[in-house]
Amino acid sequence: MDKWVGKVAVVTGASSGIGAATCRRLVDSGMIVVGFARRENRLEELRETLTGKPGEFHYYKVDLCSEQNIREAFAWVKNKLKSVDVLVNNAGVWKNCDVLGNTQDWKLMFDTNVLGPSICSKEAVKIMKEFEINGHIININSDSGHYPPTLMANMSVYSATKFSSVSITESLRELLALQMLPIRVTSISPGLVDTEMVDDMTTAINTSPMLKPSNIADAIVYSLSAPQYVNISEILIRPTSETMLPFIKDAFQELNISL
């Protein structure tokens, strides 16, 4: 990670979970990190814990459902820090609804999980191109964006957002390669991670193995640490012994079907 010392990283969803763990790892590695999130009090608490570390931590209050807010945030980073070398699109949201469910929940998930990160990538690439940066964009996706949760109706729309993000991530990598830009793109797709997002998902969570946010931060550091000519484009990371059986049982119980 020596090549990233003093470089600027933007991390979305920085107020908790994977985002906060990533901020800690990157600041510990000597990077200048800007955390984007809505909960300013949590960002301030994180800043206090990172004071005195090898790197620096700054933050900007951002609602990823607002394109204007995103643009303002990147303009602030550009003006204050003169660079964006790394972007970690981590922020995400899950709502308990299916494909016949609440349309406002659909919109929130697509805005936060698909459109918001895509706008962040667009703004980051503009800065990387302007300053001729050897950059890196990392999208935190999900294993549910690779395999449809057929028997888990309440995951169907969330899964669709992650399918979209996985596809967009690869399209971005291909586009930047065609333009001969030195910007790497990585998709990291975790299984269950012990974060706030999973707290209300299902009772099956209580018996399922889960990853720690620090495990995903490790994968981010691994991707960043590769030589510039190496683009680790896809990582699928799951807890050992992860299985969907507990969730399938829950789904069948909700439908009063014996398994």
TrEMBL record:
Keywords of the record: Oxidoreductase
Coiled-coil ranges per UniProt: none
Gene3D superfamilies per UniProt: NAD(P)-binding Rossmann-like Domain
InterPro entries given in the database record: NAD(P)-bd_dom_sf, SDR_fam
Domain of life per record: Eukaryota
GO molecular function, one term: oxidoreductase activity, acting on the CH-OH group of donors, NAD or NADP as acceptor
Pfam family, any one: adh_short
Similarity annotation: Belongs to the short-chain dehydrogenases/reductases (SDR) family.
Protein's recorded name: Dehydrogenase/reductase SDR family member 11
